[in-house]
Amino acid sequence: MYKRWFYLALPPLVLVAAAFVLVQLFLELDEDSVDRTAAERLTLYRQTILGEYQKFRYLPYMIARDPRATSALGLGQPVESANRFLQEMAENSGADLLYVMNAQGTTLAASNWQDRLSLVGRNYGFRPYFKAAINGEEGQFFAIGATLGEPGLFLSRPTPVSGEPLGVAVVKVDMRPLEEAWAEGGETVFASDANGVIFLSSRPEWRYRSMSALPGDIRQMIEATKQYAGQSLEPVGDQPVQSKDLLTIDGNVYRHNSADVGLLGWTLHFLVPVEETRKSVLPIWTATITLCLVYAVIVLVLRGRRLRKASLLLRRESAELKELNTRLVEEIQERRRIERALARSSRLAAVGEMSAAVVHELSQPLSALRMFVAGTRKFLDKGDTQTAAENLDEIDSLQLRMASLTQELKRFARPGESRIEKIDLRESVRTAEKIVRPRFEETGVALRLDLPEEPLEAETAPLRIEQILVNLLRNGADAAASEDEGIVSLRAGLQDGHVVLTISDNGPGIPEDLRERIFDPFFSTKSSSGGMGLGLAISMRLAEDLGGTLSVSANIPKGAQFELSLPGVAGMTPASSPSGKLETEAAQ
Predict the structure, then answer these.
(1) Rounded to 5 degrees, what angle do the CA atoms 231, 236, 237 make?
(2) Domains of the chain by start residue, with CATH
(3) If the chain, 588 residues long, is cut into consecutive pieces of 10 residues, what is the mean pLDDT of each piece?
(4) Is the pTM here over 0.85, yes or no?
(5) What are the distances in angstroms from CA 489 to CA 287, 432, 498, 507?
(6) What is the rounded CA–CA span in Å between residue 352 and residue 374?
(7) DSSP string for residues in 532-558
(8) How far apart are CA 227 and CA 224, in angstroms?
(9) Collapsing DSSP states into helix, strand and coil, what is residue 582?
Protein backbone atom coordinates (compact mmCIF):
# COMPACT_ATOMS: atom_id res chain seq x y z
CA MET A 1 0.00 0.00 0.00
CA TYR A 2 2.79 2.41 0.89
CA LYS A 3 4.52 1.67 -2.42
CA ARG A 4 1.36 2.53 -4.34
CA TRP A 5 1.02 5.90 -2.59
CA PHE A 6 4.71 6.57 -3.18
CA TYR A 7 4.35 5.99 -6.93
CA LEU A 8 1.22 8.17 -7.02
CA ALA A 9 3.02 11.02 -5.24
CA LEU A 10 6.25 10.75 -7.24
CA PRO A 11 5.20 12.82 -10.33
CA PRO A 12 4.04 15.87 -8.23
CA LEU A 13 7.23 15.65 -6.15
CA VAL A 14 9.36 15.73 -9.30
CA LEU A 15 7.41 18.73 -10.60
CA VAL A 16 7.83 20.62 -7.30
CA ALA A 17 11.56 19.86 -7.19
CA ALA A 18 12.02 21.07 -10.76
CA ALA A 19 10.02 24.23 -9.99
CA PHE A 20 12.17 24.90 -6.95
CA VAL A 21 15.38 24.70 -9.02
CA LEU A 22 13.93 27.02 -11.67
CA VAL A 23 12.77 29.50 -9.01
CA GLN A 24 16.26 29.71 -7.50
CA LEU A 25 17.79 30.24 -10.93
CA PHE A 26 15.35 32.98 -11.95
CA LEU A 27 15.65 34.65 -8.53
CA GLU A 28 19.38 35.09 -9.08
CA LEU A 29 18.76 36.46 -12.57
CA ASP A 30 16.11 38.90 -11.31
CA GLU A 31 18.32 40.06 -8.43
CA ASP A 32 21.24 40.66 -10.81
CA SER A 33 18.95 42.70 -13.07
CA VAL A 34 17.69 44.79 -10.13
CA ASP A 35 21.26 45.36 -8.85
CA ARG A 36 22.43 46.56 -12.30
CA THR A 37 19.54 48.99 -12.52
CA ALA A 38 20.20 50.20 -8.97
CA ALA A 39 23.89 50.80 -9.75
CA GLU A 40 22.95 52.91 -12.77
CA ARG A 41 20.41 54.96 -10.81
CA LEU A 42 22.82 55.47 -7.89
CA THR A 43 25.49 56.75 -10.26
CA LEU A 44 23.00 59.23 -11.75
CA TYR A 45 21.81 60.45 -8.36
CA ARG A 46 25.36 60.76 -7.09
CA GLN A 47 26.25 62.99 -10.04
CA THR A 48 23.24 65.22 -9.42
CA ILE A 49 24.25 65.74 -5.77
CA LEU A 50 27.87 66.46 -6.65
CA GLY A 51 26.72 68.71 -9.51
CA GLU A 52 24.60 70.75 -7.12
CA TYR A 53 27.56 70.98 -4.74
CA GLN A 54 30.00 72.08 -7.45
CA LYS A 55 27.46 74.60 -8.75
CA PHE A 56 27.56 76.62 -5.52
CA ARG A 57 31.00 75.76 -4.19
CA TYR A 58 32.58 78.92 -5.74
CA LEU A 59 30.09 81.35 -4.14
CA PRO A 60 31.56 81.53 -0.61
CA TYR A 61 35.01 82.17 -2.14
CA MET A 62 33.63 84.99 -4.34
CA ILE A 63 31.80 86.63 -1.45
CA ALA A 64 34.84 86.34 0.82
CA ARG A 65 36.92 88.31 -1.78
CA ASP A 66 34.29 90.97 -2.58
CA PRO A 67 34.57 94.10 -0.37
CA ARG A 68 30.94 94.94 -1.12
CA ALA A 69 29.93 91.89 0.87
CA THR A 70 32.58 92.12 3.61
CA SER A 71 32.44 95.86 4.23
CA ALA A 72 30.40 95.28 7.38
CA LEU A 73 33.34 93.42 8.96
CA GLY A 74 35.49 96.56 8.94
CA LEU A 75 32.74 98.62 10.54
CA GLY A 76 31.76 95.92 12.99
CA GLN A 77 28.05 96.49 12.35
CA PRO A 78 25.43 95.72 9.65
CA VAL A 79 25.65 97.76 6.43
CA GLU A 80 22.65 98.11 4.11
CA SER A 81 24.78 98.11 0.93
CA ALA A 82 26.29 94.74 1.93
CA ASN A 83 22.80 93.33 2.57
CA ARG A 84 21.54 94.52 -0.83
CA PHE A 85 24.58 93.09 -2.58
CA LEU A 86 24.08 89.66 -0.96
CA GLN A 87 20.38 89.78 -1.82
CA GLU A 88 21.17 90.46 -5.49
CA MET A 89 23.81 87.71 -5.56
CA ALA A 90 21.36 85.16 -4.10
CA GLU A 91 18.69 86.02 -6.69
CA ASN A 92 21.14 85.74 -9.59
CA SER A 93 22.89 82.56 -8.43
CA GLY A 94 19.82 80.64 -7.21
CA ALA A 95 21.34 80.15 -3.74
CA ASP A 96 18.91 79.85 -0.83
CA LEU A 97 20.84 82.18 1.51
CA LEU A 98 24.07 84.22 1.48
CA TYR A 99 25.46 85.81 4.63
CA VAL A 100 28.65 87.07 6.30
CA MET A 101 29.62 86.55 9.97
CA ASN A 102 32.28 88.20 12.08
CA ALA A 103 34.98 86.32 14.02
CA GLN A 104 32.56 85.70 16.90
CA GLY A 105 29.93 84.06 14.66
CA THR A 106 27.45 86.96 14.61
CA THR A 107 25.81 87.65 11.23
CA LEU A 108 26.47 91.22 10.02
CA ALA A 109 24.99 90.93 6.50
CA ALA A 110 22.49 88.51 4.93
CA SER A 111 20.50 88.14 1.72
CA ASN A 112 17.24 87.88 3.70
CA TRP A 113 17.88 91.07 5.67
CA GLN A 114 14.38 92.39 4.92
CA ASP A 115 12.52 89.22 6.00
CA ARG A 116 10.81 88.85 9.37
CA LEU A 117 13.21 86.00 10.27
CA SER A 118 16.33 87.79 9.08
CA LEU A 119 19.69 86.22 9.91
CA VAL A 120 21.25 89.63 10.65
CA GLY A 121 22.31 89.90 14.28
CA ARG A 122 22.02 86.17 14.97
CA ASN A 123 24.97 84.12 16.15
CA TYR A 124 25.87 80.78 14.55
CA GLY A 125 29.31 80.30 16.08
CA PHE A 126 28.29 76.82 17.28
CA ARG A 127 27.99 75.49 13.71
CA PRO A 128 30.87 73.27 12.44
CA TYR A 129 31.03 75.15 9.12
CA PHE A 130 31.82 78.39 10.98
CA LYS A 131 34.50 76.75 13.12
CA ALA A 132 36.17 75.22 10.03
CA ALA A 133 36.20 78.53 8.12
CA ILE A 134 37.43 80.66 11.03
CA ASN A 135 40.35 78.23 11.23
CA GLY A 136 41.18 78.97 7.60
CA GLU A 137 39.55 75.86 6.08
CA GLU A 138 36.69 75.30 3.67
CA GLY A 139 33.53 74.46 5.62
CA GLN A 140 30.84 71.98 4.55
CA PHE A 141 27.84 71.02 6.70
CA PHE A 142 24.27 69.79 6.13
CA ALA A 143 21.73 70.83 8.78
CA ILE A 144 18.28 72.21 9.48
CA GLY A 145 18.43 76.00 9.69
CA ALA A 146 18.46 77.19 13.30
CA THR A 147 16.35 80.26 12.44
CA LEU A 148 14.17 79.36 9.46
CA GLY A 149 13.90 75.62 10.24
CA GLU A 150 14.58 74.72 6.61
CA PRO A 151 17.25 72.10 5.71
CA GLY A 152 20.17 72.86 3.44
CA LEU A 153 23.86 72.37 2.66
CA PHE A 154 26.02 75.10 4.22
CA LEU A 155 29.32 76.00 2.42
CA SER A 156 31.73 78.48 4.01
CA ARG A 157 35.08 80.22 3.40
CA PRO A 158 37.21 82.52 5.60
CA THR A 159 37.49 86.20 4.72
CA PRO A 160 39.93 87.46 3.73
CA VAL A 161 40.86 84.32 1.79
CA SER A 162 44.50 84.64 2.93
CA GLY A 163 45.97 85.79 6.21
CA GLU A 164 44.23 85.99 9.55
CA PRO A 165 40.44 85.40 9.09
CA LEU A 166 38.28 88.35 10.16
CA GLY A 167 35.01 86.65 9.36
CA VAL A 168 33.26 83.92 7.44
CA ALA A 169 31.26 83.97 4.18
CA VAL A 170 28.48 81.36 3.93
CA VAL A 171 26.11 80.09 1.22
CA LYS A 172 23.14 77.84 2.00
CA VAL A 173 22.07 75.46 -0.80
CA ASP A 174 18.50 74.14 -0.83
CA MET A 175 18.65 70.38 -1.57
CA ARG A 176 14.89 69.82 -1.52
CA PRO A 177 14.49 70.01 -5.33
CA LEU A 178 16.58 66.82 -5.48
CA GLU A 179 14.11 65.06 -3.16
CA GLU A 180 11.19 66.24 -5.27
CA ALA A 181 12.83 64.87 -8.42
CA TRP A 182 13.41 61.51 -6.68
CA ALA A 183 9.77 61.35 -5.55
CA GLU A 184 8.44 62.23 -9.03
CA GLY A 185 10.50 59.37 -10.47
CA GLY A 186 8.55 56.93 -8.28
CA GLU A 187 11.71 55.33 -6.92
CA THR A 188 12.69 54.69 -3.30
CA VAL A 189 15.99 56.48 -2.73
CA PHE A 190 17.51 58.35 0.20
CA ALA A 191 20.82 59.77 1.42
CA SER A 192 22.35 59.30 4.88
CA ASP A 193 25.18 61.23 6.53
CA ALA A 194 28.34 59.85 8.14
CA ASN A 195 26.36 59.06 11.33
CA GLY A 196 23.70 57.09 9.45
CA VAL A 197 21.01 59.82 9.71
CA ILE A 198 18.73 60.12 6.66
CA PHE A 199 18.59 63.79 5.55
CA LEU A 200 17.30 63.47 1.96
CA SER A 201 14.60 60.98 0.97
CA SER A 202 11.94 60.36 -1.66
CA ARG A 203 9.80 59.12 1.27
CA PRO A 204 9.24 62.15 3.56
CA GLU A 205 8.29 59.96 6.55
CA TRP A 206 11.82 58.49 6.60
CA ARG A 207 13.57 61.88 6.75
CA TYR A 208 15.56 62.60 9.95
CA ARG A 209 15.52 59.00 11.09
CA SER A 210 18.60 56.82 11.45
CA MET A 211 19.69 53.59 9.81
CA SER A 212 20.26 52.10 13.28
CA ALA A 213 20.15 53.24 16.93
CA LEU A 214 22.60 56.12 17.48
CA PRO A 215 25.22 55.90 20.28
CA GLY A 216 24.94 58.44 23.09
CA ASP A 217 28.05 60.43 22.16
CA ILE A 218 26.82 60.85 18.56
CA ARG A 219 23.46 62.11 19.80
CA GLN A 220 25.18 64.61 22.10
CA MET A 221 27.33 65.91 19.23
CA ILE A 222 24.24 66.35 17.01
CA GLU A 223 22.38 68.18 19.78
CA ALA A 224 25.39 70.44 20.47
CA THR A 225 25.56 71.57 16.81
CA LYS A 226 21.74 71.69 16.47
CA GLN A 227 22.20 69.85 13.19
CA TYR A 228 18.70 68.38 13.08
CA ALA A 229 16.78 70.81 15.30
CA GLY A 230 15.54 68.38 17.95
CA GLN A 231 14.34 65.61 15.60
CA SER A 232 13.82 62.22 17.27
CA LEU A 233 16.32 60.40 14.96
CA GLU A 234 14.64 57.07 15.72
CA PRO A 235 15.77 54.05 13.64
CA VAL A 236 13.90 53.72 10.34
CA GLY A 237 14.32 49.95 10.17
CA ASP A 238 12.26 47.49 12.21
CA GLN A 239 15.54 45.78 12.96
CA PRO A 240 19.21 46.34 12.12
CA VAL A 241 20.31 45.71 8.55
CA GLN A 242 20.17 41.93 8.21
CA SER A 243 22.68 41.81 5.38
CA LYS A 244 24.30 43.93 2.72
CA ASP A 245 21.40 43.21 0.36
CA LEU A 246 18.23 43.34 2.51
CA LEU A 247 16.62 46.04 4.66
CA THR A 248 13.31 45.85 6.58
CA ILE A 249 11.36 49.09 7.04
CA ASP A 250 7.80 49.34 8.43
CA GLY A 251 7.32 45.62 7.92
CA ASN A 252 8.37 45.72 4.25
CA VAL A 253 11.52 43.99 3.00
CA TYR A 254 13.58 45.78 0.35
CA ARG A 255 16.47 44.85 -1.90
CA HIS A 256 19.14 47.30 -0.73
CA ASN A 257 21.94 48.86 -2.82
CA SER A 258 24.15 51.77 -1.75
CA ALA A 259 27.00 53.96 -3.02
CA ASP A 260 29.32 56.55 -1.46
CA VAL A 261 28.63 60.10 -2.61
CA GLY A 262 32.20 61.27 -2.00
CA LEU A 263 31.08 64.29 0.03
CA LEU A 264 30.98 64.62 3.84
CA GLY A 265 30.79 60.83 4.26
CA TRP A 266 27.33 60.75 2.64
CA THR A 267 25.87 57.47 1.34
CA LEU A 268 23.13 57.02 -1.26
CA HIS A 269 20.65 54.15 -0.83
CA PHE A 270 18.41 52.65 -3.51
CA LEU A 271 15.61 50.30 -2.40
CA VAL A 272 13.47 47.93 -4.45
CA PRO A 273 10.69 45.83 -2.83
CA VAL A 274 11.72 42.18 -2.79
CA GLU A 275 8.46 41.34 -4.59
CA GLU A 276 9.84 43.04 -7.69
CA THR A 277 12.90 40.79 -7.56
CA ARG A 278 10.64 37.74 -7.69
CA LYS A 279 8.59 38.44 -10.79
CA SER A 280 9.43 35.06 -12.31
CA VAL A 281 8.46 33.10 -9.19
CA LEU A 282 4.68 33.40 -9.55
CA PRO A 283 4.41 32.07 -13.16
CA ILE A 284 6.66 29.12 -12.35
CA TRP A 285 4.69 28.11 -9.25
CA THR A 286 1.38 28.73 -11.04
CA ALA A 287 2.34 26.37 -13.85
CA THR A 288 3.58 23.79 -11.34
CA ILE A 289 0.40 23.89 -9.26
CA THR A 290 -1.75 23.70 -12.40
CA LEU A 291 0.05 20.55 -13.58
CA CYS A 292 -0.26 19.01 -10.10
CA LEU A 293 -4.01 19.74 -10.07
CA VAL A 294 -4.48 18.16 -13.51
CA TYR A 295 -2.63 15.09 -12.29
CA ALA A 296 -4.76 15.01 -9.12
CA VAL A 297 -7.99 15.18 -11.17
CA ILE A 298 -6.90 12.23 -13.29
CA VAL A 299 -6.05 10.22 -10.18
CA LEU A 300 -9.38 11.09 -8.55
CA VAL A 301 -11.37 10.07 -11.63
CA LEU A 302 -9.67 6.69 -11.66
CA ARG A 303 -10.15 6.33 -7.91
CA GLY A 304 -13.82 7.26 -8.25
CA ARG A 305 -14.45 4.25 -10.42
CA ARG A 306 -13.01 2.04 -7.72
CA LEU A 307 -15.11 3.74 -5.05
CA ARG A 308 -18.33 3.11 -6.97
CA LYS A 309 -17.53 -0.58 -6.94
CA ALA A 310 -16.82 -0.43 -3.21
CA SER A 311 -20.15 1.35 -2.56
CA LEU A 312 -22.02 -1.73 -3.75
CA LEU A 313 -20.37 -3.70 -0.97
CA LEU A 314 -21.20 -1.00 1.57
CA ARG A 315 -24.90 -1.09 0.69
CA ARG A 316 -24.93 -4.80 1.38
CA GLU A 317 -23.50 -4.14 4.85
CA SER A 318 -25.96 -1.29 5.66
CA ALA A 319 -28.63 -3.70 6.95
CA GLU A 320 -26.20 -5.04 9.53
CA LEU A 321 -25.30 -1.53 10.59
CA LYS A 322 -28.98 -0.63 11.11
CA GLU A 323 -29.43 -3.62 13.35
CA LEU A 324 -26.36 -2.70 15.35
CA ASN A 325 -27.66 0.86 15.70
CA THR A 326 -30.94 -0.43 17.11
CA ARG A 327 -29.09 -2.44 19.76
CA LEU A 328 -27.03 0.62 20.70
CA VAL A 329 -30.19 2.71 21.20
CA GLU A 330 -31.62 0.07 23.50
CA GLU A 331 -28.39 -0.02 25.53
CA ILE A 332 -28.41 3.78 25.87
CA GLN A 333 -31.99 3.74 27.15
CA GLU A 334 -31.10 1.04 29.69
CA ARG A 335 -28.11 3.09 30.89
CA ARG A 336 -30.28 6.17 31.36
CA ARG A 337 -32.75 4.12 33.43
CA ILE A 338 -29.88 2.95 35.66
CA GLU A 339 -28.61 6.52 36.03
CA ARG A 340 -32.07 7.71 37.16
CA ALA A 341 -32.15 4.91 39.75
CA LEU A 342 -28.70 5.93 41.00
CA ALA A 343 -29.83 9.56 41.24
CA ARG A 344 -32.78 8.54 43.44
CA SER A 345 -30.41 6.55 45.65
CA SER A 346 -28.09 9.57 45.96
CA ARG A 347 -30.99 11.77 47.02
CA LEU A 348 -32.02 9.26 49.68
CA ALA A 349 -28.43 9.15 50.94
CA ALA A 350 -28.37 12.95 51.12
CA VAL A 351 -31.61 12.90 53.15
CA GLY A 352 -30.03 10.38 55.52
CA GLU A 353 -26.90 12.46 55.94
CA MET A 354 -28.97 15.61 56.62
CA SER A 355 -31.06 13.77 59.22
CA ALA A 356 -27.89 12.59 60.97
CA ALA A 357 -26.56 16.17 60.88
CA VAL A 358 -29.78 17.48 62.48
CA VAL A 359 -29.49 14.94 65.31
CA HIS A 360 -25.82 15.76 65.84
CA GLU A 361 -26.24 19.53 65.88
CA LEU A 362 -29.33 19.54 68.11
CA SER A 363 -27.79 17.16 70.68
CA GLN A 364 -25.36 19.81 71.93
CA PRO A 365 -27.92 22.57 72.81
CA LEU A 366 -30.29 19.87 74.18
CA SER A 367 -27.55 18.73 76.54
CA ALA A 368 -27.02 22.31 77.69
CA LEU A 369 -30.80 22.68 78.00
CA ARG A 370 -31.00 19.67 80.38
CA MET A 371 -28.23 21.14 82.54
CA PHE A 372 -30.01 24.50 82.80
CA VAL A 373 -33.36 22.84 83.62
CA ALA A 374 -31.74 20.78 86.38
CA GLY A 375 -30.00 23.85 87.76
CA THR A 376 -33.24 25.87 87.68
CA ARG A 377 -35.03 23.27 89.77
CA LYS A 378 -32.29 23.32 92.38
CA PHE A 379 -32.30 27.12 92.52
CA LEU A 380 -36.13 27.14 92.89
CA ASP A 381 -35.90 24.60 95.71
CA LYS A 382 -33.39 26.91 97.44
CA GLY A 383 -35.58 29.95 96.79
CA ASP A 384 -32.97 31.61 94.54
CA THR A 385 -35.49 32.99 92.06
CA GLN A 386 -33.08 35.50 90.54
CA THR A 387 -30.61 32.82 89.42
CA ALA A 388 -33.52 30.63 88.32
CA ALA A 389 -34.79 33.53 86.17
CA GLU A 390 -31.36 33.90 84.62
CA ASN A 391 -31.36 30.17 83.80
CA LEU A 392 -34.80 30.54 82.22
CA ASP A 393 -33.43 33.30 80.04
CA GLU A 394 -30.62 30.98 78.97
CA ILE A 395 -33.19 28.22 78.29
CA ASP A 396 -35.22 30.64 76.14
CA SER A 397 -32.04 31.63 74.29
CA LEU A 398 -31.21 27.96 73.67
CA GLN A 399 -34.64 27.14 72.28
CA LEU A 400 -34.37 30.13 69.94
CA ARG A 401 -30.93 28.90 68.93
CA MET A 402 -32.29 25.39 68.27
CA ALA A 403 -34.93 26.88 65.95
CA SER A 404 -32.30 28.94 64.13
CA LEU A 405 -29.97 25.95 64.05
CA THR A 406 -32.64 23.91 62.30
CA GLN A 407 -32.86 26.59 59.63
CA GLU A 408 -29.07 26.67 59.30
CA LEU A 409 -28.89 22.92 58.81
CA LYS A 410 -31.42 23.31 55.99
CA ARG A 411 -29.06 25.86 54.46
CA PHE A 412 -26.12 23.41 54.72
CA ALA A 413 -26.88 22.24 51.18
CA ARG A 414 -27.69 25.83 50.06
CA PRO A 415 -24.93 28.03 51.54
CA GLY A 416 -25.89 31.18 49.63
CA GLU A 417 -28.95 31.76 51.86
CA SER A 418 -27.09 32.62 55.10
CA ARG A 419 -27.47 36.18 56.41
CA ILE A 420 -24.18 38.09 56.28
CA GLU A 421 -23.58 41.02 58.63
CA LYS A 422 -20.72 42.97 60.15
CA ILE A 423 -19.97 41.55 63.62
CA ASP A 424 -17.34 41.52 66.33
CA LEU A 425 -16.10 37.92 66.46
CA ARG A 426 -15.31 38.28 70.16
CA GLU A 427 -19.09 38.21 70.80
CA SER A 428 -19.42 34.98 68.80
CA VAL A 429 -16.67 33.46 70.93
CA ARG A 430 -18.43 34.47 74.17
CA THR A 431 -21.77 33.08 72.91
CA ALA A 432 -20.17 29.75 71.99
CA GLU A 433 -18.48 29.67 75.42
CA LYS A 434 -21.88 29.94 77.14
CA ILE A 435 -23.28 27.04 75.10
CA VAL A 436 -20.39 24.66 75.79
CA ARG A 437 -19.88 25.72 79.43
CA PRO A 438 -22.01 22.81 80.80
CA ARG A 439 -19.92 20.31 78.84
CA PHE A 440 -16.69 21.71 80.31
CA GLU A 441 -18.16 21.61 83.83
CA GLU A 442 -19.23 18.02 83.24
CA THR A 443 -15.78 16.89 82.02
CA GLY A 444 -13.77 19.04 84.46
CA VAL A 445 -11.72 20.55 81.62
CA ALA A 446 -10.50 24.16 81.91
CA LEU A 447 -11.43 26.59 79.10
CA ARG A 448 -9.12 29.55 78.53
CA LEU A 449 -10.07 32.44 76.25
CA ASP A 450 -7.38 34.82 75.03
CA LEU A 451 -9.10 37.76 73.29
CA PRO A 452 -7.73 41.22 72.40
CA GLU A 453 -9.37 44.40 73.66
CA GLU A 454 -9.70 45.72 70.09
CA PRO A 455 -12.76 44.49 68.08
CA LEU A 456 -12.22 41.61 65.65
CA GLU A 457 -14.57 42.79 62.90
CA ALA A 458 -15.67 40.59 60.00
CA GLU A 459 -18.56 40.48 57.53
CA THR A 460 -19.89 36.97 58.06
CA ALA A 461 -22.80 34.86 59.38
CA PRO A 462 -22.62 34.96 63.21
CA LEU A 463 -24.69 31.83 63.84
CA ARG A 464 -22.48 29.76 61.55
CA ILE A 465 -19.37 31.01 63.32
CA GLU A 466 -20.92 30.00 66.64
CA GLN A 467 -21.71 26.53 65.21
CA ILE A 468 -18.08 26.06 64.18
CA LEU A 469 -16.73 27.26 67.54
CA VAL A 470 -19.16 25.09 69.52
CA ASN A 471 -18.12 22.01 67.54
CA LEU A 472 -14.41 22.74 67.97
CA LEU A 473 -14.66 23.60 71.70
CA ARG A 474 -16.81 20.56 72.44
CA ASN A 475 -14.37 18.28 70.58
CA GLY A 476 -11.52 19.84 72.56
CA ALA A 477 -13.33 19.19 75.85
CA ASP A 478 -13.95 15.56 74.87
CA ALA A 479 -10.30 15.10 73.85
CA ALA A 480 -8.86 16.65 77.05
CA ALA A 481 -11.32 14.91 79.39
CA SER A 482 -8.98 11.92 79.79
CA GLU A 483 -6.14 14.13 81.12
CA ASP A 484 -5.57 14.87 84.82
CA GLU A 485 -5.44 18.60 84.05
CA GLY A 486 -7.34 18.95 80.78
CA ILE A 487 -7.08 22.37 79.17
CA VAL A 488 -8.67 23.83 76.03
CA SER A 489 -7.40 27.24 74.84
CA LEU A 490 -8.98 29.64 72.35
CA ARG A 491 -6.75 32.45 71.05
CA ALA A 492 -7.94 35.14 68.59
CA GLY A 493 -6.06 37.78 66.63
CA LEU A 494 -5.35 39.37 63.22
CA GLN A 495 -2.87 38.02 60.70
CA ASP A 496 -2.36 39.32 57.12
CA GLY A 497 -5.85 40.85 56.95
CA HIS A 498 -7.57 37.73 58.32
CA VAL A 499 -9.10 37.00 61.72
CA VAL A 500 -7.49 33.82 63.01
CA LEU A 501 -9.11 31.77 65.80
CA THR A 502 -6.91 28.98 67.21
CA ILE A 503 -8.43 26.22 69.42
CA SER A 504 -5.94 23.82 71.03
CA ASP A 505 -6.17 21.07 73.62
CA ASN A 506 -3.73 18.87 75.53
CA GLY A 507 -5.54 15.62 74.77
CA PRO A 508 -4.05 12.56 73.03
CA GLY A 509 -3.95 14.41 69.67
CA ILE A 510 -4.77 13.15 66.17
CA PRO A 511 -2.41 10.66 64.48
CA GLU A 512 -0.73 12.17 61.45
CA ASP A 513 -2.07 9.50 59.11
CA LEU A 514 -5.67 10.39 60.14
CA ARG A 515 -5.45 14.19 59.82
CA GLU A 516 -6.40 14.18 56.13
CA ARG A 517 -9.58 12.19 56.94
CA ILE A 518 -10.62 14.06 60.08
CA PHE A 519 -12.96 16.38 58.08
CA ASP A 520 -14.68 13.55 56.17
CA PRO A 521 -18.39 12.99 57.03
CA PHE A 522 -19.03 10.15 59.52
CA PHE A 523 -15.32 9.77 60.31
CA SER A 524 -14.47 10.05 64.02
CA THR A 525 -11.55 9.22 66.29
CA LYS A 526 -13.92 8.81 69.25
CA SER A 527 -15.40 5.50 70.31
CA SER A 528 -18.55 4.31 68.58
CA SER A 529 -20.72 5.97 71.22
CA GLY A 530 -18.74 9.17 71.33
CA GLY A 531 -20.06 10.86 68.17
CA MET A 532 -21.24 10.46 64.59
CA GLY A 533 -18.28 12.11 62.86
CA LEU A 534 -20.33 15.01 61.43
CA GLY A 535 -19.20 17.93 63.57
CA LEU A 536 -15.89 18.61 61.84
CA ALA A 537 -17.33 17.88 58.37
CA ILE A 538 -20.08 20.46 58.92
CA SER A 539 -17.58 22.93 60.40
CA MET A 540 -15.29 22.60 57.38
CA ARG A 541 -18.23 23.15 55.02
CA LEU A 542 -19.41 26.22 56.96
CA ALA A 543 -15.89 27.73 57.03
CA GLU A 544 -15.49 27.32 53.26
CA ASP A 545 -18.95 28.81 52.61
CA LEU A 546 -17.89 31.90 54.60
CA GLY A 547 -14.74 32.31 52.51
CA GLY A 548 -12.42 31.00 55.21
CA THR A 549 -10.38 27.92 55.96
CA LEU A 550 -10.28 25.32 58.74
CA SER A 551 -7.13 23.25 59.29
CA VAL A 552 -5.70 20.90 61.92
CA SER A 553 -2.15 20.40 63.17
CA ALA A 554 -0.35 18.97 66.18
CA ASN A 555 -0.32 21.01 69.40
CA ILE A 556 3.08 21.40 71.05
CA PRO A 557 3.93 19.59 73.25
CA LYS A 558 0.73 17.50 73.24
CA GLY A 559 -2.72 17.44 71.77
CA ALA A 560 -4.40 18.85 68.65
CA GLN A 561 -4.73 22.40 67.33
CA PHE A 562 -7.47 23.67 64.98
CA GLU A 563 -7.10 27.00 63.16
CA LEU A 564 -10.11 28.90 61.75
CA SER A 565 -9.17 31.76 59.39
CA LEU A 566 -11.81 34.26 58.19
CA PRO A 567 -11.47 37.37 55.98
CA GLY A 568 -11.32 40.53 58.09
CA VAL A 569 -12.80 43.95 57.35
CA ALA A 570 -10.59 46.16 55.12
CA GLY A 571 -8.52 48.68 57.08
CA MET A 572 -8.11 46.60 60.24
CA THR A 573 -4.62 46.58 61.75
CA PRO A 574 -3.36 43.84 64.07
CA ALA A 575 -2.67 44.74 67.67
CA SER A 576 0.88 44.27 68.88
CA SER A 577 -0.33 41.86 71.59
CA PRO A 578 -3.61 41.04 73.34
CA SER A 579 -4.13 43.63 76.00
CA GLY A 580 -6.92 41.77 77.76
CA LYS A 581 -7.40 38.13 78.64
CA LEU A 582 -10.50 36.25 79.76
CA GLU A 583 -9.95 32.82 81.37
CA THR A 584 -12.77 30.45 82.28
CA GLU A 585 -12.18 27.16 84.10
CA ALA A 586 -14.73 24.49 84.95
CA ALA A 587 -14.54 22.91 88.37
CA GLN A 588 -12.18 19.99 88.47
Answers:
(1) 155
(2) 177-278 (3.30.450.20), 420-585 (3.30.565.10)
(3) 69 73 64 80 88 89 90 83 91 91 92 90 91 92 86 92 90 88 85 89 87 86 84 74 70 85 88 72 70 78 80 78 82 78 54 61 76 87 87 83 64 55 90 91 91 90 89 90 89 90 90 78 59 72 87 86 87 49 44
(4) no
(5) 89, 13, 20, 12
(6) 33
(7) -S-HHHHHHHHHHHTT-EEEEEEPSSS
(8) 8
(9) strand
